[in-house]
Amino acid sequence: MAGACAAAVTAGAVVAGTIGAAAQTPAERGAYLVNTVMTCHNCHTPIGPNGPDMARALTGGTPVFDTPAFKVRGSNITPDRQNGIGAWSDADIEKALRHGVRPNGVPLAPPMPTGFYGVLTPADSAAIAAYLRTVRSSPNKVEMPVYKAAIEREAFPGAETPADPATFSDNVKLGEYLVTIAHCMECHTPREKGRLDFSAIGAGRQEFKGPWGVSVSRNISSHPTKGLASWTDAEIKRAITEGVSRDGGKLKPPMGYGFYARMTPADLDAIVAYLRTVPPRE
Ligand code: HEC
Ligand code: HEC
Predict the structure, then answer these.
(1) d(CA 218, ligand 2 centre) in Å
(2) Which of 56, 65, 79, 250 has a CA positioned 20 to 30 A from the CA of residue 136?
(3) Spelled out in words, what is the top-level CATH class assigned to the domain 163-282?
(4) pLDDT for res 217
(5) What is the rounded distance in angstroms from the CA atom of residue 118 to the CA atom of residue 96?
(6) CA of 126 relative to ligand 1 center, distance in Å
(7) pTM of the model
(8) Rounded distance between C-alpha atoms, residue 249 and residue 246, angstroms
(9) How much distance in Å is there from the Cα of 142 to the middle of ligand 1?
(10) Among the bound ligands, the one closest to the CA of 222
(11) What confidence tens digit (pLDDT) does each residue in 43-79 have?
């Protein structure tokens, strides 16, 4: 008996320590999505001297997105009923994610990448809602958003409707899903008069200003010289997870390298497999 028990404990530890997607609860799956590939903290957790201040995780207030059309801040998405989203139903949270509309009907400004989140599978959007209920509640009151023009929501091509998880056995399909929910192409596609230029997906060329100065997103299409075609898989993964370019140069924010670093190796492999299929862009 004692022997069998020890064996069972060991086996359990191995499963818990490795992966076992099948054994994940919805809240665990939601934690994985929120804290790694979907980088929610990049916009919903205040930045401290050493990056996102996880003691104030998801309490909002910064960053501030100030444009001619709106001035908004990352919201408090902890379960506080007054100042967070504790009073929202699961359906309310999923509607905000996938359709960009609050329970009171007011649309969310586009820094919240709902145009990409339309692709979320029903299981994954439910998982995110389940996880958000478990995070530490904070009464932090975020300044009200100001809208100076009508909010236009733009669905990213392919993200209009939920993906079919049955297709995820194909690594490229899984990678496409992950790259979409990670909103990689929101930063890595040039903008024309503020709108993403869908004819140049992956070409980069967007400028980001912040405490780091200025960074310009790079070409991550499969272009032979301007994109990633000649990079090795390991070089691409190092750029995504460590923020180190092919030549060893340090890459700047706002890309959330530290969050992507905690993705599973299988998910990273799928992302690389998909990036290799992105048509070459100049
Ligand atoms: C690139 C920045 C960005 C990312 C990434 C992002 N958000 Fe947001 N989110 C925002 C901003 C900005 C707002 C407020 C928009 C407004 O006020 O119109 C917002 C609003 C929301 C709201 C509505 C809250 C309210 O009180 O109205 C929810 C819910 C939300 N985000 C959840 C998430 C979750 C969950 C993730 C990750 C899966 C995420 N967001 C990722 C920027 C972002
Ligand atoms: C919030 C904007 C943003 C998001 C989201 C984002 N990136 Fe980036 N990425 C950048 C910027 C800006 C740079 C260039 C930084 C610099 O030059 O210092 C960059 C650099 C890179 C590089 C290095 C390319 C080179 O030539 O060195 C790769 C590869 C990359 N990103 C892939 C991705 C992938 C894959 C995703 C999604 C999983 C992603 N990025 C999400 C903004 C973003």
Answers:
(1) 6
(2) 65
(3) mainly alpha
(4) 98
(5) 10
(6) 16
(7) 0.93
(8) 7
(9) 12
(10) 2
(11) 999 988 777 899 999 999 988 999 999 999 999 999 9
